Prior knowledge:
- The protein is mainly alpha-helical.
- The protein is built from 12 helices and 5 strands.
- A 3-stranded antiparallel β-sheet has the order 1-2-3. Strands 4-5 form a two-stranded antiparallel sheet.
- Helix 2 packs across helix 3 (108-115).
- The longest helix is centred in the last third of the chain and has 31 residues, at 272-302.
Amino acid sequence: MQPETVEEVCDExxxxxxxxxxxxxxxxxxxxxAEDPRTSTEWVPLRACAMTPEGLRVPGAExxxxxxxxxxxxxxxxxxxxxxxxxxxxxxxxxxxxxxxFRTRPTWEALCRTAxxxxxxxxxxxxxxxxxxxxxxxxxxxxxxxxxxxxxxGEPPPYIREVVAAVGGGTPATAQVLKxxxxxxxxxxxxxxxxxxRTAPARLALTVDGRIATQRAEPAARRTIVHVExxxxxxxxxPLHEALRSARExxxxxxxxxxxxxxxxxxxxxxxxxxxxxxxxxxxxxDWLNSEVKKSRRKRRTxxxxxxxxxxxxKGGTLREARPxxxxxxxxxxxxxx
Length: 338
């Protein structure tokens, strides 16, 4: 299921149901649980669930009702009391962490569906203040969760520039620099909070004038995964689909595999034009890798000489030259002749 679909289902119904089929001996068992962007219930057998007029109910899943106004409704259907600023910051951080876990980049409006409807009326200036508080609660060196936010056009909101500067990341000089910086932070967030987690790439450093600084290569003795280092250096100067095409043209299989892994994580977050280009290049790269595997198999087969293959096949497939084993008939003949 795509991350956007997960977000829509959770927004409409409060949670989604995930099924798992298990085999015990010759029997198949169905287990399921309810999930939302924040939590999930325990896996339970199907017989433990109940069918109600609202649908299938799973033990531990709470029915949540939503409203389009600024004040959300609680489970009883009454208007909830206004939240404090600390509660709003906590709700925003939890919602952004869940977005990173599902590898999606929400708009402010979509984020408020999870973080709380009372945040819909917050002005862009106040949003920056709330997000700065969100980042300050996360500690030093962690990915900037605010970088996950995007506009309806797929660009970072302008007020994210204030958040970047407030946490010590520098002040991006242009919208293009801000976009590249936020894309790298989004990749870092997907790596840290995704399931399963993986090693996050380094944060992009900005110069005093707000440009992306030239990345220094680490000493060769400290490198543990060479193709990851090469992948990072390529992506800092070229888009992902161009880096993938360049690696394929150079026939660098290891780099192509590494770029495909990162492309699968980032393709859902790209604008539509780049999304289409990357999908096309990913298909071409996979076809190229498959063709290389087939070529290597054919090459291994040709290493065996046809004559040797035929002789080996003939020896194992006929019994014309086999001698009969000694048996009772031969022994009786020998006695008669004696």
